């Protein structure tokens, strides 16, 4: 990989290129081949590293913005945390070296005005293996970090005795302490030099960062941790640092205090403290209680009084050996249980106590007794901690996490009786490192080899708000075009037990979050944006429908309520609305259809009247769904099921009415209606959709003369809306989908349908069970739909059926389709469990995940300030975002348990085969499972024997059968000795039969009606009322109940899918297998092939 460069070429460990891919050419040529024939390779990174190793909070962009920096080994990511706990990425850039540690310099008030480019921003300090200490500021214009100083500490690399391992910053931001892994340590004083002015008053030299380093190599040990300490010896030693050091040959770690001699300017050892017992691990000074520090040891925490560095004493001890769940931490009477000096005034023992039944024991095979087993308890350690950023004066608080996943809160206070400690249990989860307590009570925790999380402290309890994806470590991956989109997806084995998961990594869409309202929009049932005229570039109205209310807001710099000036009925739930003609808006609710002419107060082109002009149309029964098109309105009722077509006409200059054009009674209830909107920004859709088709020369397409409806049959129908003609069914597509076991999938009722005009015309149907379907027309003459829609066409109208082309399982919640524009070829936002962007012009069903949280409603919104905005409703808030045309990889997570080691894509069944180890079940600790890539459900399973672990697998075709070759190990010892000889372990080579079981979501066992007859049986239009004179027919395949099912197959149903055909045992673990000549299998067992 080529290294990135920063502005000016001197950013050190700081700012690298913000590109998402880095590459470098390399050349390889065989001997005797000249340079012209050399082969060139290009290495390109497609996914950045995601494990967060360090985290810091500060005002990096401006004094008013509190940002968070995530350090991911070789990159920096600046993020902001919203009130809902979701991280929004501001920028990400690579660094020159591997980041070892970070900190924040608070120069907001001490160096104001000296460096205008910094202003009152805080400085990010980065220590890396580049050998430099980099001071970075965030440049808002360039949208990235730049270095204001690169302080040379040592040569690049990771030598143990060279500076570059740990850093600490004093509370005045004047000194930075830097240590090596062992022996070496330095104080670096940093400040800003004033500007130099020439005699004529001009600036001769700008202000710059200056530094002075003081080194020592007399530590004689390994540095584990350090922090600055405020002491009473400022005149003699300043600054003073407390350091955990493991001396050579010592079994314990010392607490040593070093200080910079104020006169000799040398670093001296002031004092040292050690005791036999638990191993000291890390140390942290208590904010506000300067001179006090917490010493974290294996099994306990000591509260140390370091105000006088020459006399170190311990005040309190907090035991960590017992479980804290369910009991408050209690402060017991003072005792002298610690080996400290006699002059320690008091030693209060704070024992973190739980019941005997909850005591944490070592997780080993010997621990088989009952819950009251007297085995030695495990010494727990604090793996991470963080101080409250804006705690109450004199009452600092800290959250710490134990290595078993318990989170605790410690509050300190200082009074005349000394330091008091108030501990409390707040959460139980996975162990996190690092940990950061942010503003507004939010806590960010990052799980090693697992997803991070944002927690909210509420009533002294941590509540999970959101997750932060981490795909590392990637144990194995498979690449396949599973969805038939002509673009590959990556299926990766990620994480380790208990956080093992399968990730589907694919192209994604970034969003810029522009606006978020307060959570006051509860119970939203519908969201639409409307124009005042068809030719308007921007939207004018935002319609919000609630359970028993409808509000209309103006679209512009601010969203103002103009409901009274538009005319919509405010005390009802709006089912649908739209622009029926220029200046005419239509509202559809359960009781009536309302035509409205807004006033000039609502829009500059409104009517010059004090109140809106309205006209109502009332049906005899309740309206269930509706849609608004150009000069036409379609509504459907339930019980009985009718479909009404309405028009608009003028009675006088200020009077208008809605009138019924025709209606028809249906056999099945209508679940959704869609009327394609005319493309007013292009001449014809046919020029885009059917170039070169002779059929379109005589029949130009007008996409406003028909409607698409979905029914509870379930089915999708195309009906003609041509003026002056009766109802005509132009095409029908029946929805009949079976799972892999041949059982009909429930919940296949269309929730939303949409007509799309791209390279071909097709119909999208979003179902209530989370499926997305694509239908394309097929006619007897092979003509392309919708030529048969027009009465001039010679193609028989009733011979067109819709063929089911593709099925996708988007989620388990109903699928909603919202186009980004009014054009028939616009890309579509697909809402289900999460938002997706469907690319309408792509083959089959091609979509990208949108980097946004799950949302209930969405609508495009265009204004002068935000022409390409998208408005989401999520968590009772309105979110205005703008989709960014930038490459991004999004990962979907399927939790499968254990540690996934290897994944293979089985093309015949379109499923994934995953090898797992580290299972906690009694029956087996390793297995191979067959997984549905759509929803992560388990389709089949092959268990290894107890004590056996699968090591490798490969798909092979032996004869006419497809099999899975598996290599295993039957011992937990080393597979080989150091000399390469096999240990006394066994391994098996197993041949497993692969049945061609298909994913339930991609099963070929679905049926669609392909033949139509003239019988009324099963027809949704048996009775014609009004102008209609024709009958429409269809076949009913089956009735599906209106419910949601995710079709997970249980293990009991899998027993016959993956069976062992043969196996043989070897001396040594089988670590590699491969098919050979379609008849043989090569296996590497120990040191034998």
Automatic annotation (TrEMBL):
Residues of the RSE1/DDB1/CPSF1 second beta-propeller domain: 523-882
Residues annotated as domain RSE1/DDB1/CPSF1 first beta-propeller: 52-464
Specify residue ranges for compositional bias: Gly residues.
Answer: 1-15
Q: Where is this region: Disordered?
A: 1-29
Q: Record's InterPro entries?
A: Beta-prop_RSE1/DDB1/CPSF1_1st (IPR018846), Beta-prop_RSE1/DDB1/CPSF1_2nd (IPR058543), RSE1/DDB1/CFT1 (IPR050358)
Cited Pfam families: Beta-prop_RSE1_1st, Beta-prop_RSE1_2nd
- According to UniProt, the name of this protein is Cleavage/polyadenylation specificity factor A subunit N-terminal domain-containing protein
Composition skew (Low complexity), residue ranges: 16-29
């Amino acid at each position: 990989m080529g290294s990135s460069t920063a502005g000016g070429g001197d950013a050190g460990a700081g700012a690298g290129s913000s590109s998402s891919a880095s590459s470098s050419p390399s050349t390889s040529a065989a001997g005797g081949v000249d340079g012209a024939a050399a082969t060139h390779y290009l290495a390109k990174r497609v996914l950045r590293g995601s494990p967060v190793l360090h985290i810091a909070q500060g005002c990096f962009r401006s004094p008013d913005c509190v940002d968070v920096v995530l350090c991911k080994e070789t990159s920096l990511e600046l993020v902001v945390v919203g009130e809902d706990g979701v991280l929004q990425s501001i920028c990400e850039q690579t660094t020159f070296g591997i980041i070892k540690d970070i900190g924040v310099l608070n120069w907001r008030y001490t160096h104001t005005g000296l460096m205008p480019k910094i202003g009152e921003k805080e400085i990010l300090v980065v220590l890396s293996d580049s050998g430099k200490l980099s001071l970075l500021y965030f440049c808002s214009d360039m949208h990235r970090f730049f270095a204001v100083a690169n302080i040379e500490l040592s040569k690049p690399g990771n030598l143990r005795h060279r500076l570059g391992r740990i850093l600490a910053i004093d509370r005045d931001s004047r000194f930075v302490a830097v240590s090596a892994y062992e022996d070496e340590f330095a104080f670096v004083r940093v400040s800003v030099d004033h500007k130099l002015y020439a005699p004529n008053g001009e600036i001769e030299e700008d202000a710059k960062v200056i530094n002075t380093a003081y080194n020592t190599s007399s530590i004689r040990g390994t540095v584990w941790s350090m922090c600055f300490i405020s002491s009473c010896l400022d005149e003699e030693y300043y600054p003073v640092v407390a350091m955990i050091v493991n001396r050579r040959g010592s079994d314990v770690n010392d607490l040593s205090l070093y200080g910079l001699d104020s006169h000799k300017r040398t670093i001296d050892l002031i004092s040292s403290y050690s005791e036999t017992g638990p191993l000291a691990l890390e140390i942290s000074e208590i904010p506000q209680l300067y001179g006090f520090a917490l010493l974290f040891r294996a099994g306990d925490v000591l509260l140390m009084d370091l105000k006088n560095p020459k006399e170190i004493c311990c005040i309190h001890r907090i035991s960590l050996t017992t479980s804290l769940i369910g009991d408050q931490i209690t402060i017991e009477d003072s005792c002298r249980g610690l080996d400290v000096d006699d002059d320690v005034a008091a030693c209060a023992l704070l024992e973190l106590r739980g019941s005997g039944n909850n005591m944490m024991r070592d997780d080993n095979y010997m621990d088989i007794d009952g819950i009251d087993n007297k085995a030695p308890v495990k010494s727990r350690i604090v793996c991470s901690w963080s101080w409250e950023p804006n705690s109450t004066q004199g009452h600092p608080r800290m959250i710490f996490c134990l290595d078993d996943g318990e989170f605790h809160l410690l509050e300190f206070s200082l009074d005349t009786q000394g330091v008091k400690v108030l501990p409390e249990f707040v959460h139980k989860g996975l162990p996190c490192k690092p940990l950061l307590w942010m503003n507004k009570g939010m806590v960010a925790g990052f799980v090693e080899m697992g997803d991070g999380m944002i927690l909210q402290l509420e009533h002294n309890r941590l509540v999970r708000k959101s997750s932060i994806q981490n795909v590392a470590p990637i144990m194995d991956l498979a690449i396949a075009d599973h969805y038939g989109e002509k673009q590959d997806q990556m299926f990766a084995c990620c994480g380790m037990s208990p956080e093992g998961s399968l990730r589907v990594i694919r192209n994604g869409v970034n969003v810029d979050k522009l606006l978020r309202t307060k959570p006051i929009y509860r119970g939203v049932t519908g969201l639409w944006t409307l124009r005042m005229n068809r030719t308007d570039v921007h939207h004018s109205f935002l319609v919000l429908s609630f359970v028993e209310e409808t509000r209309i807001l103006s679209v512009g710099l601010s969203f103002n309520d103009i409901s009274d000036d538009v005319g919509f009925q405010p005390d009802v739930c709006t089912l649908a609305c739209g622009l029926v003609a220029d200046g005419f808006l239509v509202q559809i609710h359960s009781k009536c259809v309302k035509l409205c002419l807004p006033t000039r107060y609502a829009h500059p082109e409104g009517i010059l009247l004090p109140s809106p002009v309205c006209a109502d149309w009332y049906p005899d029964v309740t309206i269930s769904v509706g849609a608004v098109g150009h000069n036409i309105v379609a509504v459907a009722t339930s019980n009985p099921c009718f479909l009404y077509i309405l028009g608009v006409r003028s009675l006088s200059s200020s009077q208008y009415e809605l009138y019924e054009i025709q209606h028809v009674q249906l056999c099945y209830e209508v679940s959704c209606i869609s009327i394609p909107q005319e493309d007013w920004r292009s001449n014809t859709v046919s020029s885009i959709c059917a170039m070169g088709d002779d059929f379109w020369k005589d029949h130009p397409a007008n996409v406003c003369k028909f409607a698409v409806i979905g029914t509870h049959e379930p089915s999708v129908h195309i009906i003609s809306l041509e003026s002056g003609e009766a109802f005509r069914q132009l095409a029908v597509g029946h929805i009949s989908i079976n799972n892999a076991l041949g059982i009909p999938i429930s919940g296949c009722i269309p929730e939303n349908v949409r007509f799309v005009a791209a390279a071909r015309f097709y119909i999208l149907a979003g179902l209530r069970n989370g499926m997305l379907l694509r239908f394309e027309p097929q006619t007897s003459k092979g003509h392309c739909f919708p030529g048969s829609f027009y009465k001039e066409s010679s193609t028989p109208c009733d011979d067109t059926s819709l063929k089911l082309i593709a099925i996708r399982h988007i989620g388990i919640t109903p699928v909603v389709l919202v186009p980004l524009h009014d054009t028939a070829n616009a890309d579509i936002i697909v809402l289900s469990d999460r938002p997706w962007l469907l690319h309408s012009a792509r083959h089959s069903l091609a979509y990208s995940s949108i980097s946004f949280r799950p949302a209930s409603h969405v609508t495009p919104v265009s204004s002068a300030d935000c022409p390409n905005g998208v408005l989401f409703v999520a968590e009772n808030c309105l979110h205005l975002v703008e989709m960014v045309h930038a490459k991004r990889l999004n990962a979907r997570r399927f939790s499968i348990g254990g540690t996934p080691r290897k994944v293979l894509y089985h093309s015949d069944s379109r499923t994934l085969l995953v090898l797992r180890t580290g299972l906690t079940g009694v029956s087996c600790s390793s297995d191979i499972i067959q997984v549905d890539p759509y929803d992560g459900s388990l389709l089949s399973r092959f268990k290894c024997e107890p004590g056996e672990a699968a090591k490798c697998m490969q798909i092979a075709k032996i004869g006419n059968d497809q099999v899975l070759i598996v290599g295993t190990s039957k011992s937990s010892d080393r597979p080989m000795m150091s000399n390469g000889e096999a240990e006394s372990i066994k391994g098996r080579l197993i041949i497993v039969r692969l049945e061609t079981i298909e994913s339930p979501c991609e099963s070929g066992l679905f049926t669609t009606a392909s033949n139509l007859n003239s019988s009324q049986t099963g027809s949704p239009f048996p009775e014609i009322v009004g102008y209609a004179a024709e009958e429409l027919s269809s076949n009913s395949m089956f009735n599906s109940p209106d419910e949601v099912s995710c079709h997970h197959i249980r293990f009991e149903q899998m027993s016959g899918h993956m069976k062992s055909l043969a196996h043989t045992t070897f001396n040594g673990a089988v670590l590699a297998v491969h098919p050979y000549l379609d008849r043989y299998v090569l296996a590497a067992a120990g040191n034998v092939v």
